[in-house]
Predict the 3D structure of the following.
Amino acid sequence: MTVNSVTVAANTADDPRDNLEAEAAEAPLQLIPVATATTTDGTPTLRVIDPRSAAKAAAALDGLAGVDLDEDTLRRLAMSCVEANGFHVTRHRAGTGWLSIIDTRQFVTLFTLTPSNDRLGDQLIYAADPSFDAKTVKDGRRIGHIAVPMPESDGTHAKLVYTASKDTLLEATDRNCQAVRKDNPQHDIGPDIIHRSLTTVFTNLRYVGGLNDLEQVSVDGNSRLASAYAQIKVDPNWLPQRLRKQYQDQDQRPTLLPSMLMSCDLNERRDLTRKIIKANEDRLALPPRATLKDLKERNAAVCALNALTAPVQVIVGYEDDDPGSYGMSRFASAVRSLLVRMNVGVKTFDTGAQNAVIAEEIVLAAQQTGHFGYDEVELLIGREDVSEVMKAYGLDPDLRDLRAMMVVYFCAQNSSKLNKAMREKFGKRKVMLPHRSAVASELVLRSYGAVLSPYELERARTALNSGCIWQSLVDQPWQARKVNDDRSVDAVLKRALRELNPVGEKEVVTGEPGSHARLLGVLGMVALVVGGGLTSPKGSSEKEVGDLIDRSSVASIVEKLTSFPWGLRMLAENIKRNRAGIPLLGIQVPDGTTDIETFDDPTASVTARDARLRHAVRVAVQGSAGKTAASDEENAFNELCSKILLADEAFQNYRVIRNQDPSPALLPFHQTDGPIKKLEAMAKALNRMTAEDDEQ
């Protein structure tokens, strides 16, 4: 093996003081063979498969049952493999059908990350946000955390389709790579090879105003793939001439990025792969020198070669449960359903990201049964500009709370088709309010990613997740209406007050909240949560007012506000204030009284506003109450109940994942004994504290 046309790492004269003994922590890394090919001296090596062998492998793949890809795609798959042989198709249950998958090992340079990263689904800026273009474009290019349009099914083959500008898709894919590399780095990749398989799918990238590109992208495994790219340095001279200039000005060799690969065709990427292999193998072939510099260069070469390949599960086919009705149209939904039960690296999806995926799956599943139309899906998912859809409903597209109103309205519908989709995606027997709130909260916040800080966005998410849909929104009639200006808000308020029918100076309520009160409550809830007037319940808020507060969900607080004339007026005022971008009007109970009054203090903190509002609601509903041992016990019991509900949610999620296996093995005793004993002890103790109900 000799060094010739490919430039390798510099091998200048070493400083005599630079020796191995100076850095005892540095140790030589081991190159791990992943293929049967060797050099003439028997050293393990990597070789890109030749086109003739790839054609034979593609033909063999085409003959396997369950494979549903066209000839060009199969040829590309075979040309990306380290060794294209021994293919075997397995079936995996996903959503409304079965995915066909093959296992192989491929060069990471010949496929890439997905433009969509569902791990970041709760952190992205969506096109449904009216400030999307202003916040995500610089010098004519898309920047920032962008939510790309939803992938669609190819309709004929087991492939996805992304439609967007090339800049949008390249920027989004690079951002995904850099984000997961930062948030979930896989430090063992490089010193070791990738052991856990990545899951990939073939995708047509339909660039707006350009040609189609065929790409193989990850479905699961972004963190591993990004960490592999981080180990591979590229000499700009290895790239096609048209791409060299943008990388040659850097001080050192750039790290591999998806955009670098996606700008090359398949032959150019295969050539780049050969050059990466050769440069690093040639560096390892040089005689060792007892210096730290030499050791670091050799270790870098080992890491690059170890990271250059990965085990891959490639989705090659799909069989729908109802092929006559749907064919391949639900392929994209089936691929996305994998995300709900898959980890990426060693880190599971955060709750917000998981709910974002589930929310989209529910909307798409409801569309497939005919519950939602195309415009409704576009409005709810919010990955594309929704201004025309909003206008079609007669709504001002610049008012974020109106889209939020539509989301809550659609999520609160007690429809058998929608309920079925929610039950299936959450793995529950019955749809509860928390399920509707989890879906609504993620979809609502897609209008606010460009205007709220990450902290404000997470605060709003936590608040809405505590409950943003109350029971009467599901059980009682109400309509999303054109509330496009202050005059419209006042009109809704007037009708809502008429429903309560307050009598006398003290405004004794003689009616009940009706459809207009519920509408005002939804819009007011959004204003309070986004504007910082209402957050998730916290026990520490009682210190703020020196008294007990109402610690129920956001939805419960708002529902109670709609039962009081002063509550309706406060909601209406804050809808107008939040739209105008001015501080919210607050509610408080003066010390030693039970009177409810408003306060206008722009300097009041979010914590203070929330505490005073919750205190006022409790006083209005229950009257004044001093803090006692009984109230402490009540709060502690409420906290216990909320923790039990969280534990049950975690248990149900585990059951969903476990039940994906047709015949899961029984859990070992040592694993379940501790939790079972704790639960049994808690149940016995709680039973001893519980009085018998004579009415049962």
